[in-house]
């Protein structure tokens, strides 16, 4: 009997322990989050129109929405301070910063009035005219390939006009971009213009002196070792001359600063010049200019392209004698020695005879007697002088 009671007691204890383990396992399982159910396979009927979908499909869709939808929760303080991760991939975007209102307003404060789009200019250049509300501004002109053609700073407003010169080989079709900047460095903007320049080419000049290969024996000028000469020829009346010299024998220390001479009305021109002694090459060209180069002022674009160059080679050399012809020649003058001459004594009786009114027959005898008396008197004087000196 006692053995039976102990067996029952052990069996009851084992059952209680088993039930306690089951209870603990259930509590732990209820604390863990339940795994999300696997998505149900799509039924072919899901791609059918809504009219063909039965109630069972509608119930499935409603169930999927309930399971997959996240439960909205109120953001905590920690969530507000941390950036949220993007929920999915996004495409690349370009952020364009807004243009400041100051730039937009100032960009409309200038305009390029010239050159005019599509215009034809009969000069080797064009007028640049800029109008602006700025009190002072700067500008820069670029050609079609981006090279700077002309620039200027501190230009007073509200309007400025400047001539822009083109090179002699500039193409007829022109396209320029004008960039305008305010006095404080703000770029107001730029404008581009396309236009044409149509100018003729002047005919070539002729050089008459010096002749090709001529040696000019010329006296020295103000500068020692330099000679003066005249470069002359013919050209178109009213044309401007462009001339230059090239040293052919290594001369140094020379240069020129001159206004372009204008061909006179008769078509002949002459240029007085001076260069160091040696061999030279002169090149002369002509073109049609505007105004008078001697009057000064801002030069204007030419009305023609430069003519073909005409050259002449010559040599400047000192005179053969080596003496400057301007110096007066010194001729020695010999002093003449004074030669004493005998004193001619004119008898007084002859002068008295001229005044006589008597007979001319006694004149010879009277003269002879007078001469004798004069001779005696002279001898007497000569003999008396030594005695007087002794006394």
What does this structure look like?
The chain is α+β, with helices and mostly antiparallel strands and 391 residues long. Among the domains are: 103-197, Immunoglobulin-like; 206-317, S-adenosyl-L-methionine-dependent methyltransferases (Single Sheet), CATH 2.20.130. Helix content is 23%, strand content 28%. The chain has helices spanning 2-31, 55-68, 77-81, 101-106, 348-354, 363-390; strands at 110-114, 120-121, 125-132, 136-142, 148-156, 159-165, 173-182, 187-197, 206-209, 214-217, 226-234, 240-247, 268-276, 278-287, 310-317. The strands form 4 sheets. The protein has a 5-stranded mixed beta sheet with strand order 2-8-7-4-5, with no helix packed on it. α5 runs antiparallel to α6 (363-390). The protein is elongated. The protein starts with a helix and ends with a helix.
């Amino acid at each position: 009997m006692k053995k039976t009671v102990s067996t029952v007691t052990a069996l009851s204890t084992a059952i209680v322990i088993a039930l306690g383990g089951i209870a603990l396992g259930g509590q732990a399982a209820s604390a863990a989050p339940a795994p999300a159910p696997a998505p149900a396979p799509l039924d072919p009927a899901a791609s059918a129109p809504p009219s063909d979908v039965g109630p069972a499909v509608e119930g499935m869709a409603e169930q999927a929405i309930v399971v997959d939808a996240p439960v909205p929760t109120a953001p905590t303080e920690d969530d507000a301070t941390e950036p949220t991760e993007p929920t999915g991939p996004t495409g690349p975007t370009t952020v364009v910063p807004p243009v400041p209102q100051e730039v937009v307003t100032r960009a409309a404060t200038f305009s390029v009035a010239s050159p005019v789009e599509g215009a034809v200019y009969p000069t080797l250049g064009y007028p640049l005219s800029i109008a602006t509300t700025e009190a002072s501004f700067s500008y820069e002109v670029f050609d079609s390939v981006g090279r700077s053609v002309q620039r200027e700073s501190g230009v007073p407003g509200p309007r400025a006009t400047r001539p822009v010169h083109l090179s002699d080989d500039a193409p007829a079709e022109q396209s320029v971009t004008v960039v305008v900047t305010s006095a404080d460095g703000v770029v107001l903007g730029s404008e581009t213009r396309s236009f044409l320049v149509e100018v003729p080419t002047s005919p070539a000049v002729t050089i008459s002196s010096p002749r090709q290969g001529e040696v000019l024996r010329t006296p020295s000028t103000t500068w020692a070792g330099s000679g003066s000469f005249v470069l002359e020829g013919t050209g178109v009346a009213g044309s401007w001359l462009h001339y230059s010299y090239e040293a052919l024998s290594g001369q140094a220390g020379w240069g020129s600063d001159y206004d372009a001479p204008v061909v006179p009305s008769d078509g002949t021109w002459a240029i007085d010049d001076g260069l160091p002694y040696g061999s030279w090459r002169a090149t002369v060209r002509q073109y049609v200019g505007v105004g008078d180069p001697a009057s000064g002022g801002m030069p204007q674009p030419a009305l023609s392209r430069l003519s073909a160059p005409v050259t002449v080679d010559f040599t400047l050399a000192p005179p053969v004698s080596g003496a400057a012809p301007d110096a007066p020649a010194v001729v020695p003058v010999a002093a003449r020695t004074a030669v004493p001459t005998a004193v001619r004594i004119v008898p007084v009786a002859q002068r008295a005879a001229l005044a006589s009114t008597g007979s001319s027959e006694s004149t010879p005898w009277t003269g002879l007697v007078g001469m004798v008396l004069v001779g005696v008197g002279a001898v007497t004087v000569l003999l008396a002088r030594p005695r007087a000196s002794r006394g």
